[in-house]
Amino acid sequence: MRLFLLTALTMVAFAANSVLNRLALASGEIEAGTFGTVRLIAGAVTLGALCLLRDGRLRLGGPGRAVAVAALVVYIYGFSAAYRALDAGLGALILFGTVQVTMFAGALRGGERPPAQKWIGAAVAAAGLVWLLWPGEGPQTSTLHGLAMVAAGAGWGVYSLVGRGAPDPLMGSAANFVLATPIGLAIGLVLEGGVGAISAFGLVLAVLSGAVTSGLGYALWYTVLPRLQASTAAVAQLSVPAIAIAGGWLVLGEALTAESALAALIVLGGVALAVLAPRRP
User: Fold this and answer.
1) Rounded-to-integer distance, Cα 117 and Cα 134, Å
2) Where are the domains of the chain?
3) I want to staple 112 with a disulfide (CB 3.0 to 4.6 A). Which of 63, 107, 160, 258 is the partner?
4) Greater pLDDT, 122 or 170
5) Rounded CA separation 126/189 (Å)
6) Share of the chain above pLDDT 70, in %
7) By three-state DSSP, how is residue 138 classified?
8) Are 279 and 129 in contact (CB under 8 A)?
9) What is the pLDDT of residues 212-251, one digit of tens each?
10) Short-list 170, 163, 183, 182, CA closest to 74
11) Nearest to 275 by CA among 225, 243, 232, 239
């Protein structure tokens, strides 16, 4: 029961990132780029502090670090840019579907030969994403902002592939956030000429997203992940878009149309097919 509750809490934290980001931008409390930069800084401080408390030091090097940092930056700023227009749940759905398709492509590139069920699942999920993003058809979605979330999902997928099998995921994540922060500050200077318009409430939301639902959320995930079967962990993540949709409805008053619900079922159904496929011996 304790493991279940910790896993559920982690999934709620991941979904809360979408709700917090959308809440901050929809109410005009903060600019998208500034939200991403504050989130990066808060995450770096939290993860770095956890590593210092645990080990007394912070290691910034490691294989694949440059790729991981670049992928993290793409994820953070694509995520924030997308929530200028996307609903919280819809954004989480596009993000999650893209992450899974990206990781499937990465597995192929790495020489894996997945069974037919994984191919079918990935194709179904990709078709659902195309329907969501296709201009003038299907659910009404801003194609530009949807593509920003696709970029974020691809970034997070690459980030996950690079970090898969890392000997110390917490230390690696702390290093990635710390090294990405100066890049984020530079992006803020270019995009917004410095720190954009921000209120106290917007600052609190961005810090919560970086320190709590990102930093502490990732730390908790790395604690429970070794105790979960791979298939269980993958299925657990299917709940994130559903939680984000519920959070958007409860906190932001977002509506869910029948077409959006159908698209969500197609994407999540395809992902479920892929992650539940048996491994080849």
Assistant:
1) 26
2) 2-275
3) 107
4) 170
5) 35
6) 87
7) coil
8) no
9) 999 998 888 888 877 776 556 666 777 788 888 888 888 8
10) 183
11) 232
